[in-house]
Structures are given as C-alpha cells and as structure tokens.
Design brief:
Pfam families: PhyH (PF05721). The chain is of the alpha+beta class and 304 residues long. It has a single domain (30-270), classed as q2cbj1_9rhob like domain (Jelly Rolls, Sandwich), CATH 2.60.120. 22% of the residues lie in helices and 20% in strands. The chain contains 8 helices and 13 strands. It has helices at 42-51, 65-78, 100-103, 105-112, 117-124, 151-159, 205-208, 219-229; strands at 24-25, 53-56, 86-88, 94-98, 128-138, 146-149, 166-172, 183-185, 192-193, 232-233, 241-245, 250-252, 261-270. The chain has a 7-stranded antiparallel β-sheet. Strands 6-12-8-10 form a 4-stranded antiparallel β-sheet, with no helix packed on it.
C-alpha cells in the first residue's frame, strides 16, 4: 500500500508521462517581493526574473570559510556508512550530505545570516523554511556530474510541491573554475516547464541522488532550450553564492582536475507553498530530502 496521501487536485504541471507533451508556460512569477522588502535592488530582481539566477559575491565572509571547511570534514568523518543522509559516488567517496543545517550550528548560522535569509524571503515574498539542504562535494579526479534537470520537476512530481515558489542558494566553499565541475545553467529556462516522459520508479531517490535518469528532459528539448538561451556557468571565488529559481534547467560536468569543489546547497520554500501529496509518485520521500515539517529559522518574519 502506498504511503502517499491521495492527490485529487488538478495538476498544472503534468510530468512523468507515458508520452511526450508540449512545454508549459510558467504560471507563477519568479520574483514575489519588491525592492523595498529585502537587500536586493530593483535591477537584481529584474535580472533574476529575466534570467532565473543571480550571483552574489561574499555571501560567506573570508573568516567563516575555513571553519566551514573543517565542519564538512567533521561531518564526513562522523556520519556512518549506514546513515541515509550520506550519498556516495560509485567509487565510494562522499557526494552529498543532507540536512547539514540540523547537524552543524555553523551551517545553521549560514542559513540565518543576513546575506542569505533576507534574500530568500525577498525573492519568495513571504516567510520561508528549508525544504532541503545538503553539502555537495565534487572530489578531485573522480567527481561525477549532475545531468540537466529542473529541481521543481522533481519536487513537484515526487514531493508534491504545488507552485514554483522555491529558490536555491548554492554557496561555494572552494573556488569554482570552468573546468572543475562547476554548475551550468540555461538562462531563461525557468519560464517554461518541460514535462518529462517515464513513470517514477519505486524508491527513486535511492538511485537518482547518484545518477538521475527519470525526470530529465530529452536531448531534443535541451537542444532547443540552449539554442534559444545559451548556457551560463557559475564560476568565481569561494564565498560566492548562486541563487537560482526552482525551475531553472541546470547541471554540471564531471571533475577530472586535481581541484576539488564543494558547496553548501540550501533550498528555501515559501510557507505558503507547503507540500501536498506527490503528483507523480506513489510514495513520499524521506524528510531529509523533502521537509514536511516547516521548521522555524529562528528570526522574525519580514513585515508585509
């Protein structure tokens, strides 16, 4: 018997289908707040609405970076192989650690910092909570990439996220070069939802966190998207943050260089966009992947 509640609502973003259908125009705005509701000026909000992403330098200060790096090492050493929050590469090295904000006060401080939380609240126009958080490690020589995908497609299909009212913040803890597996995005792709073909397998998260095969656009769709909008890449100094819309198509190549890469990855969801039943999966994913408890982030909400 399925452990997911029944989903009776009309689905504006159908996906994981048995046949291809046309792309769907986005219904929601990409920016819900305004220049008076947070630290981002009007030009940054306009750029985010148009491109679907924004790079913010010095999100984590120079003094805080070494302690965070040590914290990553501590978590990697202390969490056992049987902890489901630890995802490993096929060769055995750690790929991701989920829920670091609940395991480390240093990471929790980053979430609540004045360079992070107010930006999330401004972009989403409401109070927010952590839908998902993880540390991503791209080891030297052996780090494998992430195939092109929209996070919202997964969160909608497998977690029951109803609206495109979530935003991701990827904070670089090491320098991102064009050649060490840094994130690539298709600017403007957040304006379109691309339905995917193929039913969600049972317990899909056990394989998709290493290599995603379901819920990814086909090559023809990706070619058309890139032909129209091109590809941008997140490069730059440690401490920089890439903010990107939940529906932006993104991915990364493998890292065959001697230069490892790591980042803290935070997903903020609006408290007005809480999860329902999955739209295209039989069971709900674990809490560490899709929070159904809207935990307070410990700071007063913005005034409306």
């Amino acid at each position: 018997m399925s452990d997911a509640p029944q989903q009776d609502l009309h689905d504006p973003y159908p996906t994981r289908l048995d046949h291809a259908i046309a792309p769907i125009e986005r219904l929601e705005p990409a920016v819900w707040g305004d220049a008076g509701s947070g630290p981002l000026p009007a030009q940054d909000l306009e750029a985010f609405a148009a491109q679907g992403y924004l790079i913010r330098p010095d999100t984590v200060g120079e003094d805080a970076r070494p302690p965070l790096g040590h914290e990553l090492e501590r978590l990697a050493a202390e969490l056992g192989d049987d902890d489901p929050r630890v995802i490993r590469e096929p060769g055995g090295s750690i790929r991701s650690i989920f829920q670091p904000h609940l395991l480390s006060e240093l990471v929790a401080d980053v979430v609540r910092s004045d360079t992070v939380l107010p930006v999330a609240r401004q972009l989403l126009g409401s109070d927010v909570y952590i839908h998902q958080a993880r540390i991503n490690l791209m080891p030297a020589f052996t780090g494998t990439g992430f195939y092109w995908h929209s996070d919202f497609e997964t969160w909608h299909a497998e977690d029951g996220m109803p609206q495109m009212r979530a935003v991701s913040c990827s904070i670089a803890l090491t320098r991102n070069y064009p050649y060490n597996g840094s994130l690539m995005v298709i600017p403007g792709s957040h304006r379109t939802f691309y339905p995917c073909v193929g039913a969600t397998p049972d317990n899909h998260h056990r394989s998709s966190l290493v290599a995603q095969q379901f819920g990814v656009p086909d090559e023809n769709t990706l070619t058309k998207a890139v032909d129209g909008d091109g590809i941008d890449q997140f490069t730059g100094a440690a401490g920089s943050a890439l903010w990107f819309d939940c529906n932006l198509l993104h991915g990364s190549g493998s890292n065959i260089t001697p230069l490892p890469r790591s980042n803290v990855f935070l997903v903020f969801n609006s408290v007005d966009n809480t999860l329902t039943a999955p739209y295209a999966a039989d069971g709900i994913r674990p809490e560490y992947l899709a929070a159904r408890q809207t935990r307070s982030l410990g700071l007063p909400a913005p005034s409306s």
